């Protein structure tokens, strides 16, 4: 039996844009709405609850935009216990990498990374764990070293000494050099 979500409830009015996205009519209203939805099919369906901004235009009626989709998607990611698209972008930003560079270092597909970040698809648990591990600078350096025939340079301050010793012992191409100012 497909499950049916509980009814949405308007919580309060929010500040928002004055004109409708679709028709340009002024006087747009934005309300924060508690909006339960069913994730999954049949007996596996679970009710997840989000609070999303719902706009109401006097001529188009109520609608939701990308912001609401982001909130729903993040809730599904939290339910599944995987990184959200924003958290994956943060991982790339942490090491200042393009999608192509992250793909080269990790062996993950560049287009997959793009789809995870734009909430087109959700990464599976294996890839999610890999991404989480890469948030650790020592593991990131190891991955970088595996991907590169050249020694990997890192700022000595990045890693505690015991981890440096372990990396040296690992026999991978690895050197620590001061980063040029
Ligand atoms: Zn409108």
Ligands in the structure?
zinc ion
Q: What's the order of the H and E elements? A: EEEEHHHHHHEHE
Question: How would you write the strand order of the largest sheet?
Answer: 1-2-3-4
- Largest sheet data: 4 strands, antiparallel
Oligomerization state of this entry? single chain
Radius of gyration computed on alpha carbons: 22 Å
- For the residues shown, what is the average pLDDT? 89
Tally of DSSP helical segments: 7
Q: Could you give a short description of this structure?
A:
This protein has 181 residues and is an alpha+beta fold.
Q: Helices, strands, pairings?
A:
Blueprint: E1 9-14, E2 29-39, E3 46-57, E4 61-63, H1 66-80, H2 85-94, H3 99-106, H4 110-117, H5 125-134, H6 137-147, E5 152-154, H7 161-169, E6 174-176
Parallel strand pairs: 5-6
Antiparallel strand pairs: 1-2, 2-3, 3-4
Helix pairs in contact: 3-4
The structure holds zinc ion.
Structural notes for this entry:
- The protein has 181 residues and is of the alpha+beta class.
- It has three domains: 72 residues, no CATH class; 55 residues, 434 Repressor (Amino-terminal Domain); 34 residues, no CATH class.
- It is built from seven helices and six strands.
- Helix 7 links the parallel strand 5 and strand 6.
- Helix 3 crosses helix 4.
- It is elongated.
- The model has no long low-confidence stretch (mean pLDDT 89).
- Zinc ion (ZN) binds next to loops.
- The site of zinc ion has 7 residues, from loops.
